[in-house]
Design brief:
single chain, about 210 residues, alpha+beta, four-stranded mixed sheet, 4 strands, about 50% helix, globular
């Protein structure tokens, strides 16, 4: 298998962190340079028609896109350590937490960066700064919700580390790097403590 990734992009990082947690070996990686437009070239679009990374080329020649779908495939290949739920009920609650983090937390962060960060201007045309700023405000609301969740439970989806923690961690790190968003500076101390704890996992440097 071959995984197509881009440095500093958060969605490839989600999959790389998932792979590291699974201790999967033998998955080749290939860099797609977004700044040079390699994701829009015909060779890559043949694998990923929407020009998105990551993409996982399977041994049978098919290609999987979308981080969550790739992780679902890898979870099936390597069921342990389990990161997506041991039964239908746990899977549903983990997916709920993961989707909330992806759609609302990650989504706000991505929209702010796409529309307010000058470095993204070549990739996001046109930029809408007012929309981006509104997303930055919503980020604080969603981060407040997550902070409250982490006050009552040790991990995003409950009592153990799951894919929802990977999604949330990569989102917070993306915001930390490009938005200078520090949960502790915003009074979100439970979120900061959780972030620091996840950062100590070997997979965090994947």
């Amino acid at each position: 298998m071959k995984l197509f990734v881009s440095p500093r992009a958060p969605n490839p990082r989600r999959v790389l962190m998932f792979i590291a947690e699974k201790r999967l070996q033998g998955i080749e990686t290939e860099i797609v340079d977004l700044s040079r437009g390699e994701h829009r070239e015909a060779a890559f679009r043949a694998r990923s028609p929407l020009s998105k990374v990551p993409a996982l080329e399977l041994d049978d020649g098919r290609t999987l896109g979308e981080s969550r779908a790739i992780c679902t495939y890898l979870e099936g290949l390597a069921p342990e350590p389990n990161l997506m739920g041991n039964d239908f009920a746990e899977r549903a609650f983990i997916e709920m937490a993961d989707r909330r983090v992806e759609l609302y937390l990650f989504g706000c962060i991505a929209n702010w960066i796409r529309h307010c960060h000058p470095g993204l201007a070549p990739l996001e045309q046109p930029q809408f700064p007012d929309f981006g700023r509104s997303q930055g405000e919503k980020l604080r609301q969603i981060a407040g919700w997550l902070d409250a969740e982490l006050e009552r439970q040790p991990f995003v989806a409950g009592g153990r580390f799951t894919i929802a923690d990977i999604t949330a961690f990569c989102a917070i790190e993306f915001a930390r790097g490009l938005m200078r968003f520090q949960p502790g500076h915003e009074g979100l101390h439970h979120l900061q403590t959780w972030r620091d704890r996840i950062a100590e996992r070997p997979s965090a440097s994947a």
